[in-house]
């Protein structure tokens, strides 16, 4: 994505200038320096995208040659209940994950800002983020297991009922979202904490002189001035959160019924376990459209978020 | 200056193209230094790898010109990995194949037809367990040579069975039916114990506070229920498909299946089996070992994972007799291999008594050759395990039915699993959910 954003304005500028750029001498050398990026972009983004688009119009099982079927795959996607359910499940995941993660991270960042100077503690909140996703998924799967898991053992000890967590139809996707909230909250908190360092100290001093309490200071100074950073963090976690795959693949594999079958996992299943590559490609094209919409939203938000500090 | 720039540009372009080409090329054969052929052989069960290494050593001693390289990866990765390598044209020369997977591979011309070799070598296929060899034939072409088989039996915790006052000798003739579960359900109920020590038959039994479940529940197993429910349904008269192998119509709408699944899900409601959402993905072994479940039906491939506290019993006898699913693995040759003749030599050695006797001694699976399977049973006995339940079931001519082999297996699995799970979770009844999914399943074959 970054490559497109960079390439576009550059192309426009060269076109607007008078005379062919080749004759001014910088064009060619510029091209030389651009070549690695351009080739990388073509090989790793452009070609796969175009190929995927082509596959989406075919019936292709990876092993035989693709057969063109026109728009059949798209028609099927539109009437596929599991696809729409997967989008819904992914939506629930994203909303729950981003909401809990951001709120908790904000709280954590304020605590780090107001209560501690310890580098040790700041490093510690980052710890879950340093552990590989698959390890975390396995770790929580054992911890949350109903029969031999530690969490249910504790619940029983304090007199509460055992919970299905990952394998309960109502709790499954929320549990997965919580696991990833736990993993990312430290990292997000650190980003927000860094943002807080940009807020001038004298504003806090002024607030204190005026007799503002902790909550009012947070509401009237920290939050508004943190807005640009908060917007960035929100948008980045939104996009990242949308890509949920590994936790599902390791723990529930979409079960029970379709309660945790998120969109990326469904596409993966179709392509690599059921060999419906054409169909999987069609779903991916839908997803591209969705992500383009999200990206436009991202750009709009970032442009709107000029700092209030000026 | 101009030329040098142009040269620089051209060079960079060429270099990057080369780099890209190098990435794509890949997969070249290892060069045969002294005319020696290296065959790769893929399998998924790590417990079997040492045994097959012994086979490979014996084979290499007899065929100095061929060396065997064994690769192993877990069941899930195995198929993803194999698919990727088939697409890249770089698959292992010989690989372990599963009945549910080979139709798709064969339909896409990825598996070598070994019938000509079998004819040429006049191979005797009657040495294998009855019916196993023919499973690998479709339209006159043969896609694999049998290596082992598996059946289902009951594994139980000996101490808990004794404590419940059950004589294991009764298991030899116990019955089951979908209405009240027969002797089998009675045993399950007796083995279920609540927090106050009352068993499942006690009128005061508290199903919300179960300490030990009579029957453990393995999640998954929607479409075929191999270890979970296939034997119950079959002993009630249920047949999966219109014909096997290569049926084109599933019978998931059969009321006999619905009553079996409803009975099975009913064990959860009675508190004899853990709720589906609490069964977990760790498998039944941790639960059984922690003493939280006393009994479970399981496949013979798990035999070596059960410790001294456990013993095996035959499946209960249903209205139509005692039935177990029998499934077999085979070795297949990749159609694109460079060394077809050498690969056949290795496959026929894997399917010979010499190799299968070696496998038998390791007592992990039952080899496909009947005489070798007897040796495996003896090896189990020497290790202190009585596994006759599995073998006697396999040897009963009326007692086995085959793993259903059809096209679209992966899609069938996904569809039926969702329907099955909704029944097990108590969100639907089998008599409504299964006929509905059967229509969807059969639409795949239109």
From TrEMBL, chain A:
**Listed PROSITE patterns:** ABC_TM1
GO BP term, example: transmembrane transport
What parts of the sequence cross the membrane? 29-47, 91-111, 123-143, 184-204, 225-245, 277-297
UniProt-annotated location(s):
Cell membrane
Query: How is this protein situated with respect to the membrane?
Result: Multi-pass membrane protein
Record's CDD domains? TM_PBP2
Pfam families per UniProt = BPD_transp_1
Keyword field contains Cytoplasm:
no
Which UniProt keywords are listed? Cell membrane, Membrane, Transmembrane, Transmembrane helix, Transport
Keyword Heme belongs to the record: no
Q: Which GO terms describe its cellular component?
A: plasma membrane
Domain ABC transmembrane type-1, by residue range, is: 87-298
Give the family, as the similarity comment puts it. Answer: Belongs to the binding-protein-dependent transport system permease family.
PANTHER family reported for this sequence: ABC TRANSPORTER PERMEASE PROTEIN, DIACETYLCHITOBIOSE UPTAKE SYSTEM PERMEASE PROTEIN NGCF
UniProt name for this protein: Sugar ABC transporter permease
User: To which species is this protein native?
Assistant: Planotetraspora kaengkrachanensis
UniProtKB/TrEMBL annotation, chain B:
InterPro entries named in the record: Bact_solute-bd_prot1, SBP
**Cellular component, GO annotation:** cell envelope
Its subcellular locations are:
Cell envelope
UniProt keywords, alphabetically? Signal, Transport
Q: Does the keyword Phosphoprotein apply?
A: no
Q: Which family does it belong to?
A: Belongs to the bacterial solute-binding protein 1 family.
Record protein name field:
Sugar ABC transporter substrate-binding protein
Species:
Planotetraspora kaengkrachanensis
